[in-house]
Write a structure and sequence with these properties.
heterodimer; A: about 110 residues; mainly beta; four-stranded antiparallel β-sheet; 11 strands; B: about 110 residues; six-stranded mixed β-sheet; five-stranded antiparallel β-sheet
């Protein structure tokens, strides 16, 4: 049973295109995240949603728009893709706001912008 | 930046040896967590230590936390080839909600 799943696993696309990455968790968690991991493995939080509400929005270009249709899903839509968007994007979830919660990560989506 | 720094960046040891990785951070925390990432995979949570704890064990893992020095260490004893991975510390800063800030990672290679 996959706890946090992402699709697609790989995404290769041209500059200027619009693409979406989907994330689903079956852990019953309330809080979900998107992270970006660059080529140097630096992992940076982008967004967090708690029960479909945006609670963390780091300084991410507004070409990135998260959407949470329900608390088990958090999708990431990227408009007008740029070369610098190439990275691995990870979705994660945790039980809810408050301390002492470990995060469960999805397998990642490797995005390559040509 | 609140990003943690890990040391060393890379570590290569023989199977059976112990591996120690260090993490330093900048502001006060609620807790500090260690994660492992195998090549091409997502991160896996290893251990969480709260700000009022000094040491924690889980199997072959031992984590220490020194809040006065704003540092933590992860010790893996009797390492195995399967421990080869990148290890990240992540801190939940006081007042930061559930936001984790990840360190730069230590790439561990355990050779047979």
């Amino acid at each position: 049973d996959t706890a946090v799943s992402q699709t697609p696993k790989y995404l290769v696309t041209q500059m200027g295109n619009d693409k979406s990455i989907k994330c689903e968790q079956n852990l019953g968690h309330d809080t979900m995240y998107w992270y970006k991991q660059d080529s140097k493995k630096f992992l940076k939080i982008m967004f967090s949603y708690n029960n479909k509400e945006l609670i963390i929005n780091e300084t991410v270009p507004n070409r990135f728009s998260p959407k949470s249709p329900d608390k088990a899903h958090l999708n990431l839509h990227i408009n007008s893709l740029e070369l610098g968007d190439s990275a691995v994007y990870f979705c994660a979830s945790t039980a809810g706001p408050g301390s002492y919660n470990e995060q469960f990560f999805g397998p990642g989506t490797r995005l390559t912008v040509l | 930046s609140q990003q943690g720094e890990e040391d060393p960046q890379a570590l290569s040891i023989q199977e059976g040896e112990n591996a120690t990785m260090n993490c330093s951070y900048k502001t006060s925390i609620n807790n500090l967590q260690w994660y492992r990432q195998n090549s091409g995979r997502g991160l896996v949570h290893l251990i969480l230590i709260r700000s009022n704890e000094r040491e924690k064990h889980s199997g072959r893992l031992r984590v220490t936390l020194d809040t006065s020095k704003k540092s933590s260490s992860l010790l893996i004893t009797a390492s195995r080839a399967a421990d080869t991975a990148s290890y990240f510390c992540a801190t939940e800063f006081t007042g930061g909600g559930n936001k984790l800030t990840f360190g730069t990672g230590t790439q561990l290679k355990v050779e047979l």
